[in-house]
Amino acid sequence: MRAVVLERNKLVSRRLQRYFLAAGIDPVLVEDPKDVAANLAGAHLIAADTFDGDLVAECIRQQPALRAVLWTAEPLKRSLRYMTEGSTICNVLGRKDFESTPRPWELMLVLRRIVDPGQVPSIGSYLDWGFQGYQEKVATTAARDASVANIQAFINRLQVPKRIAEMFGELGHEMLMNAMYDAPADAQGKPKYALDRKADISLPDAEQPVLRMATDGSKLVLQVRDPFGRLQKKHVFDGLARGLAQGEMDTSHGGAGLGMMVCHNSTAAMFFDVVRGRHTEVTGVFELDLNLREFRTQAKSLHFFSA
Amino acid sequence: MEAATQQPAAPAGAPGAPPQKLAIDKFADGGIQCLRFSGTVDESFEGKKLAATIKCKTLVLDLADVKKISSFGIREWVDFIKTVGNSVEDIVLIECAPKVVDQLNMVGNFAGKGRVFSFYAPFRCDYCDTDARVMFQVDRDWEIIKSMKPAERACEKCGEPQYFDEDPSTYFSYIITQQPFELDGDVAAFLSSKLNYAVSEASRKLRIDKIIEGRSTYLKLAGDLDASFPREKLAEGLEGVVVLDVAGIGKIEPAGAAEWRGFLQMMTPASDSIYLLGVPPVFLEKLTRPEDLGPKAQVITFAIPYTCNTCSTTSLQPVDVEQHYDVLKFATPPETKCGDCKNPMVCAASEGLLSHLTTLPKPSITADTKKWIKDVRERKPEKKKVATTVAEAAATSRGGSFSVALLAAIVVAVLMVGAFFVYRATQDDKAKTQGLGKLTNKSADTRPAWASKDTPFAAFCNDATDGGMSCVGVSSVAPTQEDALDEAQEAAIEGIANAVAVRIDDPQWQRMAAIWAQTRQARMAEYEQDATSTKARRAVRDARKQVAALLRSGAGAAVPQAPTGKYWEEYENADGKRYLYFVEFALSSSEVKRMVDLYKHTEEVLGVTVANVFPMVAWRYPAVAKGAVVLGVGQGDLNGIGLSSGYVVLEVGDTTAMASINDALQFKETATGLFEKIKATGGPLQVRVLANSAEPTTYVKNIPAPKKVEPEGGGRNTGGNNSGGNRNTGGGNFNVWDRYGGGNQGGRDDPTQ
Predict the structure, then answer these.
(1) Does this complex have an ipTM over 0.90?
(2) A99, A261, B275, B590: which has the fewest Cβ within 10 Å?
(3) What domain range is A10 assigned to?
(4) Which of A65, A89, A115 is the last residue of a domain?
């Protein structure tokens, strides 16, 4: 696989080259945007900072099969504009600043998945070796609340600030609500429980989501998988774009994106994996080595993979 | 999942308790309702339903204990705030938790038409791994909010600096879009007195509305009752029927209670009848005993708390004394029903309060007076012109209605004289030397004229015509003459200290003086409650001993070494011989002036105003022997460090040593010198203070080092407190470790944060 990597900082570019090569991708390093067009022929992937998003979008218009990856040191709002417009831009990687690469573990994970779309990573792929975690099926509304409490207890055991546990409790609640109330649909594709989210429900075994929570001491990973695979890219990107607009709450276009906002605000990176009709897996990653102030100001990542 | 299969089944952590569901407590008083939210706001919150139950003019939402808000909770909340906005005039959000502030920043209409009065900001101490919340009020802290630079503060646990643990530009983004405001007086009184919330000083100032018609006067009071209560001014000219609407009275300080009693005594002779309306529970308990009311005052209505278990609402319900007199005289609260659900409510008043109801006289009030009261209470108060001068304020007060908050100059004067007389008056009211037994001996044939009052364990001062004064101390009924002499001397010297305090006419200084008033009042009350209690007597003796020692060491020769007069009496009763001692100290005007000048003198230290520690501070901090007491904090280098009025500075220093502080001047010289020294290199300036606790607390000001130019190519090395050590990539100014691997101290060394 061949990739055009547009990165103006030579040092960053060299490091990126290593990661691309390690993932089995042949990178063409380009420092000047005007050199991109000349190298695009035969490329499967273009990678660049969101700063060059217009150029990336233009390349996709010229080669609709071209896949794109963006990285950014800015808030996600700007990247979302390209993600909602360009159907092949599904990955944005946050980075510290213009002189840094994206996080290596995340970059490698994304590149390997682009090379081999059939390879679905396990939760261990997000963590260092030796991690610890648990998984549980959630069947009822009461079990959802217990599950949220378990998340908080698990995180509190790490002796991290209480606010992190509360934040992840909130994230777990949000992810489980979507998996339990929004995801289940009947044979005609009509939502079964979405109309009344106040109702207590009890899901049959085949409809129950699985929650996984794990940590390696420097990252927290929360993952919820439902067995339906109905989530669409536009739900994620459009919803988040609406939520980030910070306007008055408008539900006239199918939700205000508040759920996505909760996910976005609670994580450093969100991964959405959808195998249509089979499962939707949502994974949130939080970095424990940052204090909350740094966490708030760092650029966030967003990934959507579908098959 | 790898790890899960290695360690299957149960979570690694202990199962957590189920998340706290949302609880909403309601408190109501007249047109003000307060809803206290605690727990998780999620889809189960019925926003519109709750909004339909709100019927009031001002709705206060206490959001301090909101733990989580889900996306559907936000929807319900927005429904609630929109709906309730149509039925109430004003919505005030108080003590918003950081979670709520996040939503305010994120969701455009989260507050609806509400205004945020106070909110919490998260702080973190990495040294002891502690999170803290600091409350900001828009009226008090607007400059800090506007600057979006909350200063580091000392951790209450370890004393090391705590930093603001959020991105300020995001966290304050909503708040700075609204204008600062002060709470309405009634709302502030309700919140501070009935629910014990923190509101600003200005909001608690007593406000008085006055309507005069013929020989009837209606006075409406709202705010705290303290020493500044202008009893003479208010009582002047009151005659005929006087109606006192005290529903808005908040906290009642001992000095305020004394002023109120004096006020009633002053107006009683000229009044035909005095009616008290809307008496709140605290007022009822403290100021409506028969001896408080006197021959003419009657309680017409009062309010006591009732709880509706159906609506989970606790509210003050009015009780008409005349109507319910037959049940009240048996200490039984009248039955009442909830205004919303119509179910019976349960009285939540204390047993003590209920038993007090039996002492209330049956009111006698004419139908005409009742009708007049109803009319005047329904009138809207006129907007007052703001008095900007003492003359204007005086004119306004003559005109009938005024706001005490505006009469600063007059209040200060009243406070000075008033407080002095309060001190004397409270001593005058004490039980006399009855029941001591038979007088068996005395030091002179006749009791000296200066020993005009014989209330045990008291002191009183008399002004001399030349500007001097004499202070007399009376001992408790002591078992030995020596004991009695010591007690009388210390009481007299404490009397001197008090007399000096009331002569210091600096408002900042007078505010500081509040730090000992409450402690002293409490100790004296304990003694008065049980004069035979050794513990209570010792507490007063110890405090006075320390006050006397401090005054002698601080004021030196201004305090006479020996008393100018002594006199004792010996009594004999079943317990044996007992002694009552009287001691007089006479001071010249120059001695008094010297002490006043010594203690009122202030110094400005890096933006902090301090004075020499005043002897009466020993009531609050018994171990204090020297130091400088903080009067106020203004703009300067010590602003934001955590100092506040009433704190006593004991030591100041850097990381190497701490220097003891003897007085205000020394604090100034030491702190200023140290500050300049540390500024050259950067580092912490430490100030150790007594701050509302017997144990000293250390506040730290981190003074940044002057900026240096980094050598080319050298990335900043943050130290290796992680397994990876110092991973400097070199060759350029980027260092991933700086940002991502800085351990738990990331960012704290950056002076720009």
Answers:
(1) no
(2) B590
(3) 2-115
(4) A115
